[in-house]
Structures are given as C-alpha cells and as structure tokens.
Design brief:
This protein is mostly helical and 596 residues long. It contains 26 helices and six strands.
Length: 596
C-alpha cells in the first residue's frame, strides 16, 4: 500500500492511518486527502466535514481531481483497506513494453560488444579499420540515448556512461593485441595515458573545486552574498535570473566557467529553496551565462585556454573582439527564459490564489545572520579560488594543481585553533549570571563542523558521470572518429570559417569540444595568430555547448547539482541557447565588417 501511494505523497498519523495527499497541496494544507483505514475508506475535502462519509462515486471523483494518477478507490477495496488500481490501457502497456525493450536492447548491445572483446572473436571485425569507428559511434549514440531517456528507462546516467566507456575502451584495447606484440602494448599504453591525462586533469580540478565551494557553504559563508542578492532583488524572485546570470557571466571570465557555475548554483539554492521549477529555469540560464563568459577570456574556458597556449589568440584581441558577441549570447536567452519563467510564475500564483495559498513570488525566508566568521570564510574561499588563475598566468601551473592547493589552504586554515576562535567555529561554553543568582554555564551558538564534514556532503555521482562521458569521448578520439568528423566539416563547408565554426559549435553540444578544437588547431596550423578563424573557434566552441545539457561541463554540473533532466533542458533552454549562439556569431561578423 505504501509503495502504491509513494509517488503521490504519503502521511501517517499517530494511529497508523495512511493519508494520501496531493503533492501540489500537501505542502500548504491537507485538501482532498484520501484517508485509508483498515476498516473503511473516507475521502475528506473542504466541502465536507471530517465526520461525513463519502460515497464511492464522490471518492473516485476526489481522487481523480486531487491527483491525476493511476490510483483509484474501488468499491471492492472499501472493506479491505486496499487501494485498487484500474487495469492498464493498451497505450500504457505499449509504453511500458517500449521502455523495457529500449533498456534491454541498449544494455544487451553494450554487453555483447564487451563479450566480443573478451573472446577476441571474430577477429576480422576487431581489426577492421572501417568497422571500429562505426561501432564506437553507435555505442556512444546508444549511451547518449539512454542518458536522454534516463527517467523513462530507469537506469542512472552515471552507470550507463561508465558501462559504455568501459566497453568502448575494452574493444579498442583488444584491437591493439597488447599480449601479442610489444608495439601494440606500447601504443595502447600511449593512448590510455593520453586519454586519462585529459580526464584526470578535469576530475582533479572538479573535485577540489566542489570541495572549496561546499566548504564555504558548510560554514554558511554564502550568507553574505545571499543577503546582498536578496536586497538587490527586493523580494522579487524573478529578478534572481538577471542578477545571478550577470554575476556568473563575469565570474566565469575571472576564474572559469566550471567554478562559476558551482558557486552560482549554490547561491541559487540559498536564494530559492523550495521552488524547484524556478531553480531549474535559472540554472539553465546560468549554464549559458557561464559558457558565454568563458568564451571571451583566455582563462575562462578550456578551449580558449588551448588556443591561448597554442599561440593562436592573444589576451587583448580576444577580449576586444569577443566580449560583445559573448554578451549578446547571454542577453538574448535571458530575455526569453525570463519571460517564460515569469509566465509560469503568474499561472502558478493564479492557481494557488484560488486555494488561498500564500504567493511564491516573494522571498521565502529571510537570509541568515551575517557574522564575522561567515565573512572570514567567504573571503578566504574567494581568495583561494582567485589564486588559481593567478598561479596559472604567472607560473604556468595547471589549474587542477592550483585548485588542489586552494582546497588544502582552506582546509588547513579553517582547522587552526586561532581561526576557529576568530570565526566562532565549534562549541564554546561561557559563563553568565548575577551576583545573587551565581554563575551559570551556557553554550553559545557557533558554527559546527569542519571541511571533512563538508566533503562528506559532496555528490560523487556527477563526477562519475562526467568521467564516463570524457572516457567515451576519448575512445572516439582514439578511434579517429572526431578527426574524421572535423575533416568532413571542412569538406562540407569549404573555405568558409563562419560555416566551419558554426557547425563546430553545434557539434560541441553533442561531443566534447576539446578534441574538436584540437583537430581544428592541427588542420589550420598555418593560420596566423588572432586570425578571425581562431576567434570564431573560441566563440563557437565555448558557447555552442550550451545548446544541450551534456554539451558542456557547466551543463553536466547543472544536471548533477540540481537534477535537471536532459529532455527538460531541451524543451526549456535549448531553443533560446541556439538563438543566442546564432546571434553571437552574427554580431561578431558585424564587428569585423565595421571595425576590421
């Protein structure tokens, strides 16, 4: 019975009576609750008193009105205390069979490829130079489809990508025949080392970056920023989208788009705790703003950093030519998503006003008190994050080492006794009293915990999902799929840099933009520094990944931290991201015509 009612919302009173409460009403008040008792079933609504018995017809009507699900109260279940389910329709049975078949076929394909690799047969297919790239592409697409339909097939996206990437690399490894020749063994080791270097660098950056942000949040350091944002919003939550978006746009240019996304999503969660739909809408826009902000800064995105280190672009020309197009990429989606979010909020407020529920258009709660310790933790964390790009520019230290150093410094400082006393971290016993009453020991409220407690709150499933995606893309790169695709783009577009970069940006929404940019560097190595081609590559590769949620590390972070689904992102964000992407390229071309 509990499993049957779980999807709607189950409550139990002290007497053991199970109460079915509609999800959109349960948070406010117990309207249209179906009370299931071992002796009888009663349906309670505002129109009837709690003691009035309900007829079977009215019971069914209230259930259908309160929660449009498969649950129904039948007359046969009235005396048994059971909620009966109507027989499934043909459409529902067909949908269930389709979902089950898709999951079984996808997993069976992955398992079959893995078994073929283990058995080493048929060898002609394993050694085929044409079959291998095609098979790698098919496996990656199958994994991508299962990730897209994660909520329907019932398999976690992290498990899917880990299985797909492992099967792809196993098939590639068998093709080198490492146990039969030294050359094959050395070549396999070289390819694995190259792939693991890229994956390890990103994971080792992402892990301490999340640790630093989670530690600041654990000590409530974001209370200072949240209070400022609340004052700027003036109690109107719809203003959070432009405020956080502009902050994320400039922050990603100073640090990088990944760290900026993590920080802004944390601030968003503090500002909007209960409105999940609004958080998803703002989070989708933050992905666009973070990617656009990283495109006009050589240290804001990994692709612009690659072009900068390869001496294809310079700092001054990149900022001068790409700032305005990147800003347009951000502002156009802001107008569309803000309009949609306000329309949804108005409809929801109107519906809740009919039920006399307090409007959600205002701030949900006042921000927590700002103390000396919270300000100290925030300043320390921001200083550690800003240290990463400074070390990169001055010493050439890789960003993941800088972020590991930042986490270590934050961890060490917050564990010192002097800082804990200054920031009021940990319990402290004081003595208060009067001469007549005597001294009475009391415990003052202080911030509890340390960095270890903050690290325990991190969600590692997103890291595993991202590792699986990067390993799968690395397998495609090793099989030569991405290089062949880049050459196909050049053949298709001819000598038009605009078309080449536009297709490159759209392609980066599906696969990782790093190997595509590297292939472009190898193919157009004769182009001079600060050529319009390289600036378009930086703009397109940096902003094109916003079209799909799996196209950028910022989008994957959104899926991880907020649980945003792939299909939801496609319905609500992808169109506006594509419009902004096209407008950004158009503004850049207009700049070249007017000022070049």
């Amino acid at each position: 019975l509990a499993q049957a009612f779980f999807s709607t919302g189950l409550e139990a009173d002290p007497l053991g009576v199970l109460v079915l409460v509609p999800s959109h009403v349960a948070a406010a008040r117990g309207m249209a609750a179906v009370v299931v008792d071992p002796q009888a079933i009663e349906v309670l609504s505002p129109a009837r008193s709690a003691g009035e018995a309900a007829s079977p017809e009215s019971a069914r009507g209230d259930v259908e009105e309160g929660q449009p699900s498969e649950l129904a109260v039948t007359e046969d279940s009235k005396g048994k205390g059971l909620a009966g389910k109507p027989e499934r329709s043909c459409a529902s049975r067909a949908e269930f069979a389709l979902r089950r078949s898709l999951k079984v076929c996808g997993i069976a394909l992955i398992a079959a490829i893995f078994l073929v690799a283990l058995c080493g047969w048929p060898r002609s297919l394993i050694d085929s130079a044409t079959f291998k790239p095609n098979l790698m592409s098919i496996m990656f697409l199958v994994g991508l489809v299962l990730v897209i339909l994660e909520d329907h097939v019932g398999v976690n996206k992290s498990a899917i990508m880990l299985m797909v990437s492992a099967a792809m690399w196993t098939f590639l490894a068998v093709g080198y025949h490492p146990h039969e020749s030294v050359e094959g063994h050395d070549e396999l080791e070289h390819e694995l080392s190259r792939g693991l270097k890229d994956v390890g660098a990103i994971i080792l950056f992402l892990l301490p970056a999340m640790g630093v942000v989670e530690s600041i949040d654990h000590f409530d350091g974001f209370a200072v920023v949240t209070m400022c944002i609340a004052k700027m919003a003036g109690g109107r939550k719809e203003l959070l989208m432009p405020i956080l978006g502009i902050l994320c746009f400039f922050l990603s240019a100073v640090i990088d788009n990944l760290t900026a996304t993590i920080v802004c999503l944390k601030l968003l969660r503090h500002s909007v705790r209960h409105d999940r739909e609004l958080r998803h809408s703002i989070g989708g826009f933050l992905v666009i703003a973070a990617n656009a902000g990283g495109a006009w800064s050589p240290i804001g995105d990994v692709t612009t950093t690659m072009l900068w280190l390869a001496e294809k672009i310079t700092v001054a020309h990149t900022i001068a030519w790409l700032f305005l197009p990147s800003f347009v990429v951000t502002m156009l989606p802001l107008a569309g998503l803000w309009w949609e979010a306000r329309a949804v909020a108005r409809r929801r407020d109107a519906a809740e006003a009919e039920d006399e529920v307090v409007s959600v258009g205002h701030c949900e709660s006042a921000p927590s008190e700002v103390t000396r310790g919270k300000v100290a933790v925030l300043l320390l964390g921001v200083a550690c994050i800003l240290m990463v790009p400074m070390l990169k520019m001055t010493t050439g230290l890789p960003p993941y080492l800088g972020m590991l150093l930042a986490l270590g410094i934050l961890w060490f400082v917050t564990d010192t006794v002097a800082f804990q006393n200054f920031a009021s971290i940990g319990p402290q016993i004081g003595v208060v009293g009067t001469p007549t009453s005597g001294a009475v020991p009391v415990v003052h409220q202080r911030t509890e915990g340390n960095v270890v407690d903050a690290l325990h709150q991190m969600d590692l499933t997103g890291l595993l999902f991202f590792a699986g995606v990067l390993l799968a893309v690395g397998a495609l790169d090793t099989a030569g799929v991405l290089e062949d695709y880049a050459r196909f783009l050049v053949t298709l577009c001819g000598n038009s840099p605009v078309l080449i970069c536009a297709l490159l940006g759209v392609s980066s929404a599906i696969v990782d933009n790093v190997p595509l940019v590297q292939a472009a560097i190898n193919m157009f190595h004769s182009s001079p520094t600060d050529d319009p081609l390289w600036q378009l590559v930086a703009l397109a590769a940096g902003t094109g990944g916003s079209i799909l949620s799996v196209g950028s590390i910022a989008g994957v972070t959104l899926m991880t931290m907020e649980g945003v689904g792939y299909l939801w992102y496609c319905r609500r964000v992808s169109l506006w991201a594509a419009i902004g992407f096209a407008a950004g390229i158009g503004v850049y071309q207009l700049e070249r015509l007017c000022f070049a």
